[in-house]
């Protein structure tokens, strides 16, 4: 259910702050034709207005926006930051892994989200994604 | 028994949380009805308890029902440890 491709993964990305990291993860969705630029702006706006609710677990954020704000297809991108950034969450900062989500209606992406959650719940896989992987292929091979 | 799960947008994490809670409850032999909503729609919702991420739960302090706060939404053990006592308490109360 999780369709990640090399174009949707980037390792050791430099981001100067939370907004920058959301934009960089979102850019991958734009590059791959899954969302338009307005969707990236909407993710940033949501983060600024509603706060760090997109931080779902220690060191992990799932930025997203409403489907009608520019999502074209359901998908997810995954970036690992070279230096973690602070999102302002009470317990889960700093953030190293940013997975930008997009879905075209309010239900179709749920299986994708569950599949992603299942991978990140697996301690071995999480360790590969967060720490040991040195190439995109390595990440694709465990997904 | 009804739970309302809440996230910033009502788009993803609240539904994920709801599915996890329902499956945990089922494993313990309880049937829990539920609804996943965004923060704006959550206020004043009629239910027996609410569950939200720690970031969001602070915004729900005025609710009349218990609000459970989850730090790690991917951690089913944390969800189970916090949610099951409330479900059991509500069940006993009938």
From TrEMBL, chain B:
Transmembrane segments: none
Keywords: Transferase
Single GO term (MF): protein-N(PI)-phosphohistidine-sugar phosphotransferase activity
Pfam families per record: PTS_IIB (PF02302)
The keyword ATP-binding appears for this protein: no
Limits of the PTS EIIB type-2 domain: 1-91
Keyword Phosphoprotein in record: no
Record InterPro entries: PTS_EIIB-like_sf, PTS_EIIB_2, PTS_EIIB_2/3
Superkingdom of the organism of origin: Bacteria
Single biological process term from Gene Ontology: phosphoenolpyruvate-dependent sugar phosphotransferase system
Protein name: PTS lactose transporter subunit IIB
Organism annotation: Robertmurraya siralis
Lineage summary: Bacteria, Bacillati, Bacillota, Bacilli, Bacillales
């Amino acid at each position: 259910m999780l369709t990640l491709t090399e174009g949707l993964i980037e390792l050791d990305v430099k981001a100067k702050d939370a907004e920058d990291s959301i934009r960089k993860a979102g850019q991958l969705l734009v590059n791959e034709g899954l969302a338009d630029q307005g969707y990236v702006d909407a993710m940033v706006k949501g983060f600024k207005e509603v706060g760090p609710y997109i931080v779902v677990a220690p060191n992990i954020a799932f930025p997203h926006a409403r489907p009608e704000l520019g999502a074209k297809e359901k998908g997810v991108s995954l970036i690992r930051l070279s230096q973690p950034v602070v999102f302002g969450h009470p317990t889960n900062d700093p953030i190293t892994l940013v997975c930008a989500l997009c879905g075209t209606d309010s239900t179709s992406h749920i299986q994708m989200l569950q599949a992603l959650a299942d991978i990140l719940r697996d301690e071995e896989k999480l360790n590969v994604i967060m720490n040991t992987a040195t190439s995109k292929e390595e990440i694709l091979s465990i997904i | 028994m009804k739970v309302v799960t809440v996230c910033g947008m009502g788009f993803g994490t609240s539904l994920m949380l709801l599915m996890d809670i329902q499956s945990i409850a089922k494993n313990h032999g309880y049937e829990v009805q539920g609804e996943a909503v965004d923060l704006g729609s959550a206020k004043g919702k009629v239910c027996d308890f609410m569950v939200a991420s720690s970031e969001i739960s602070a915004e729900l302090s005025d609710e009349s029902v218990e609000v459970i706060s989850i730090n790690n939404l991917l951690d089913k053990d944390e969800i189970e440890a916090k949610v099951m006592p409330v479900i059991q308490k509500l069940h006993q109360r009938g």
